[in-house]
Amino acid sequence: MRTKHHIIHKTLGPRAGQLVTTLHERRRRVFTLADAGDITGLKMASVRSLIRTLVGHGIATRLKSGLFILVPFELGRARVYLGNPYVVARELMGGKAYYISHASAMDLHGMVTQPQLIVYVSSPAPTRGRTILGTEFRFVRCKPKDVFGTTESWVDKQEQVVVSDIERTVVDGLKQPEYCGGLTEVAKGLSMRRTDVDAKKLVGYALRLRVGAVIRRLGYLMELCGVGDAENLAQLRRELTPTYDLLDPVLPREGNYIARWRLRLNVTPEELQAAGRT
Known about the structure:
Elements: H1 4-12, H2 14-25, E1 30-32, H3 33-40, H4 44-56, E2 60-64, E3 67-70, H5 85-92, E4 99-100, H6 102-108, E5 118-123, E6 130-132, E7 135-141, E8 150-154, E9 160-164, H7 166-175, H8 183-192, H9 199-209, H10 212-225, H11 230-237, E10 245-246, E11 256-258, E12 263-265, H12 269-277
Parallel strand pairs: 5-7, 10-12
Antiparallel strand pairs: 1-3, 2-3, 4-5, 6-7, 8-9, 11-12
């Protein structure tokens, strides 16, 4: 039986066969020009020429300048291939601190019911957003001290990415609900995973961020969704100031005020509870 190595070796030459085989052996489906140079021992001009040939024959797809992904042989005549978007997001960061966040983290944690069309990545490193083969990658800048509450998650049989844990995902969603489809989606996600949430950790993360709006929104949602106990809620209430915030900053400034959590409810409790039941 002919293997992919044999076919590539015969049609494109031994260097191409060596490169593709070694990448597969190293489980490096996403690779750089530097990776190719290390494997083949060629000078950079020759490496670039070799990669252009691989791309031209549909064996690899260019993700961005200097970054490529192997196209699985089983895709047949397909010439473009993105692969797992979360793995691509990791590789786009080039080794810089990052974590998959917001709606994308909600997706990985089973907190959404709709397919996600944007990949959100939080990082202290300024990174330009881009769209690759129809998938948008959006990078959210955060402070170095705010990179906490993360874990590693398997996204397929071979690859792991860094992602915010469930509690940090909720807190990030309450800070920037616009990156999660609005506060209603965050409330729905919290409701879906409420039996798995560590309420003490959730409160601790909110207090560590020290964002008043997050503390207000979290207290209100924990109470509404039945997450945590009286002491958890008391910890949050002790941090309240006289200022009022919108429950959902994405929506218009309207609705009733609730003094207990210093919030203006521009989303009704009934709407939030209904979203949690869908």
